[in-house]
Amino acid sequence: MNSQHSDTFEPRITAFVCNWCTYTGADLAGTSRLHMASNVRIIRLPCTGRIDPLFIVKAFERGADGVIVSGCHPADCHYTSGNYHARRRFAVFHDIMQFLGVDPRRMTFSWVSASEGAKWKDVVNETVANIRELGPYEAYRALAPDAVEPWPEAVDGLTPAGDQEPAAKEVAS
Amino acid sequence: MTGPAIAPAYAGVDELRRVARELLESGEVRVIIGWEDARRGARPVFITDPAEADKLIFDTRCVHNLVTYLDPRRDHVSELGRIGLVVKGCDAKAVAGLLRESQLSRDHVVLIGMRCGGVLEEGELPEPLALTPENVAPRCYGCDNREPTLTDHLLGEPQPEPPRPVMTIDERVAALDDLPLEERWAFWTEQFSKCVRCYACRQVCPLCICERCIVEKTQPLWIESAAHPRGNFSWNLTRAIHLAGRCVDCGECERFCPVGIPLSLLNRKLQQIVHDRYGYTASDDPENAAPIGDYRLDDQQEFIK
Amino acid sequence: MSERFFISETDLRGLTADLLDGGTEVIAPVATDICQSPSAVAATACTLDGSKVEIDYRQLTSADDLDLSRGLPQLSLKEFFLPEHEPLCRWRQKGTTVQVFEVPTEFAPRVVLAAKPCDAAALAVVDKVMNWDYEDELWNGRRAATTVINLACQVIDDSCFCTAVGAAPDDVKGADGLLTPVEGGYVYEPATDKGRALVEDFAARFSADVPADTIGGQADDERAAARARVADNLEIDADSVRDWIEANFEDPLLTHLAMRCNGCGACTGVCPTCHCFDIVDEQEGVGHGTRRRLWDTCQAPTFTLHASGHNPRDTQHVRYRQRINHKFSIYPLRFGEVLCTGCGRCTRVCHAGQDLVEILEAIDIAARRPRDAEPAEAAS
Ligand code: SF4
Ligand code: SF4
Ligand code: SF4
Ligand code: SF4
Ligand code: SF4
């Protein structure tokens, strides 16, 4: 959309990954000191089969500009078939989101095994590049309920809401 | 209270009344659920007295999917005892859905299938009307189950095909598909913003079977329950995908929606997706496995990196 | 006889424009052709060259949008007093420290034009519960800020029964004034100080010179005819209905009448007098969020679900009975008024065919039946 975003805008990306393959793969990418964008916050789940499409919706609601869903390759699922079930569910979700007008580039789906640190790096970098290109997900944020007064300044040690999010942690650099 | 009997538009009403009376008299069923003619048009009726079997009608106003009364959430209906249910072809697909998902015991119900030539969009009319492209329920065009097979009695005569509506559902879906992404987003967010979160779409759906719907989970609040655009998007999306590969296109959700959101477009798109990806079409064969919950090793995965 | 003024159609629109120009919010029926909206090419209600008009109460942006055709808006006026959802407060929290920020409860003045008498009457009925054991500041704040002007109703269909429950198509209950259409304009009768203030503030738009033939003539005749038309639909003895329901709560008639109800809750949503709400906390992130209230419905199983898992109204037909019981017995016993103004929306919206006219008729017949002549028996 607005490519002028690419200079100043830091995309916020949420990744839902399975414990057994992608999480370990991401860990490997880190310990191998692979260079990748630091915009991704990882949420670890037991299996792609545990990732409800609502997680993705929730991430967008809370301000994510993009989402990554990743798990074990077919035939590698720790629970035998969780990823096969997830594959159908996400295929349907992917298609219907597009029908509703969500740019499919906002959601990356990938298979990343425990040994594919390099692939994880590519998935992250490509996703971040895509989202930089698309800009912040303003369309989704515009769905927020009617604007309320801004939060009062800090009182009694409590900071105004919105500042309480922990600063983005670097996955690896 | 019931108006005078009017000429029924479809054949088989006499047989229907006879079968219903016999089922009640023999004690084979305790209640017949069918349609009657009331002050404001056709509507569901519960008949327990054989003498009242003559109230039953079957004509183009019989739009309601009565299978919703077999849904496990309808305790007050199942308490009545064994049910005789009048079904059209599309309704029979919903019975198959309940059987497929072990939500209904086949012995609990006697199915009286009616040969169907299509129904109107709305049943709230004093008299049945002949179907025209302007008034026909769009789902009836191209219906593949006008003579249900999942029945215990199949009544009526073969009927001609329903007319083609002015614009078919598939054409409307295609029209949306042709819009640029931003306009589709604008279209759906505008439609969803009308939603008042009454959940009529869920309540009436014969296949919404959960005793506790995800939207009622408030700790944590997965789907925001306030009717603001963000909560509505999440709700309408979730309702639709939870019916993916299960929806039988009976149109009840859209008909019940008090603010007129075109839910059938969303439902039809999902039917197209499961058909294109997994070759699945809703049928009244309970043995035909539903696509979600099933998988093949070689399912398409072109969208996965 | 109350004071009467004449206002021409042009002046009524002019008055609307004056209000808007002066920064007053105006709410009125607006007709929209939903097939004309640019993205509606795919709305199932529209054929390729079709049109489908829907009437809704809306906040006006231009006086031209005011629809005086007098059709019944789909949803009642209640959303402007009890919105579908509204914030009650916001909070933020860290450890055991919680800070709460309240929402304002004072509202800028606004005017409702061409309200349906059944919708305005509902406001007066609901006022009672909103000021019963707790004074609802948000409801009262909006009520105080709003001037409601009714338009006498002529679009009566087979679901209307306002006259059977103490309202009327030309009622001013809950309103501040009434417009009655006559040749070339409207007769305006203020009913409260707020209603009179409108004439004082915009004196140039009104004329004290009411055309002679409209007094005791056209306006009154049409109003009487409208009342008679509604009365044709239903006449009940609301007091006996109230007492009968209380005394015969377990009578199978009440649940038998409700078998076909799907519990969809559409009837409570469109009802101007249904006022139940739920309160939810919307977390908006870590440690902060908004507490909102939103419409709830007694037709949903979760409405009465206890934390223990027990549900005193665990089947749909008893939930439907609750709706009847609350409206026609519990509320009148407590507040002296039926919680229904006979707008008929619940009947029109019910796609399962629940028909309140028919149901009240059946209860009325049961209530009139001499108790000992016939033992209470399952209606069939
Ligand atoms: S979808 Fe088929 S079976 Fe159902 S009403 Fe239409 S024509 Fe009849
Ligand atoms: S989703 Fe709608 S069309 Fe599909 S089965 Fe349910 S009620 Fe019928
Ligand atoms: S029936 Fe319509 S308004 Fe009610 S919850 Fe469903 S989509 Fe929303
Ligand atoms: S009476 Fe009708 S509108 Fe009301 S909950 Fe029952 S089915 Fe829905
Ligand atoms: S109960 Fe029905 S008729 Fe009475 S006020 Fe509510 S919607 Fe109108």
What is the fold's blueprint, element by element?
The complex is a heterotrimer of chains A (173), B (305) and C (380).
Chain A: H1 5-8, E1 13-18, H2 22-31, E2 40-45, H3 53-61, E3 66-71, H4 82-99, E4 107-111, H5 117-134, H6 138-141
Parallel strand pairs in A: 1-2, 1-3, 3-4
Chain B: H1 13-25, E1 31-38, E2 41-47, E3 56-57, H2 75-78, E4 83-87, H3 89-100, E5 109-114, E6 153-155, H4 169-178, H5 181-193, H6 200-204, H7 229-242, H8 252-256, H9 263-278
Parallel strand pairs in B: 1-4, 4-5, 5-6
Antiparallel strand pairs in B: 1-2, 1-3
Helix pairs in contact in B: 4-9, 5-7
Chain C: E1 5-8, H1 9-21, E2 25-33, E3 53-59, E4 85-94, E5 97-102, E6 110-115, H2 117-130, H3 137-145, E7 146-151, E8 177-182, E9 185-190, H4 193-201, H5 218-233, H6 238-247, H7 252-256, H8 266-270, E10 277-285, E11 288-295, H9 316-335, H10 345-349, H11 356-368
Parallel strand pairs in C: 2-6, 6-7, 7-8
Antiparallel strand pairs in C: 1-9, 2-3, 4-5, 4-11, 8-9, 10-11
Helix pairs in contact in C: 6-9, 6-11
The complex binds iron/sulfur cluster (SF4) (5 copies).
In short:
The complex is a heterotrimer of chains A (173), B (305) and C (380). Chain B has 305 residues and is an alpha/beta fold.
Walkthrough of the structure:
The complex is a heterotrimer of chains A (173), B (305) and C (380). Chain A has a single domain, classed as Rossmann fold, CATH 3.40.50. In chain A, 36% of the residues lie in helices and 13% in strands. Chain A is built from six helices and four strands. Chain A has a four-stranded parallel beta sheet with strand order 2-1-3-4, sandwiched between helices. In chain A, helix 2 (22-31) links the parallel strand 1 (13-18) and strand 2. In chain A, helix 2 (22-31) packs across helix 5. Chain A is globular, with a radius of gyration of 17 Å. Residues 162-173 of chain A have low confidence and may be disordered. With 305 residues, chain B is α/β, with parallel strands linked by helices. Chain B has two domains: 13-155, no CATH class; 169-293, no CATH class. In chain B, strands 1, 2, 3, 4, 5 and 6 form a six-stranded mixed beta sheet that branches. Chain C is an alpha/beta fold. Chain C contains eleven helices and eleven strands. Chain C has helices at 9-21, 117-130, 137-145, 193-201, 218-233, 238-247, 252-256, 266-270, 316-335, 345-349, 356-368; strands at 5-8, 25-33, 53-59, 85-94, 97-102, 110-115, 146-151, 177-182, 185-190, 277-285, 288-295. Chains in contact: A-B, A-C, B-C. The interface between B and C is large, with 64 and 57 residues. The complex binds iron/sulfur cluster (5 copies).
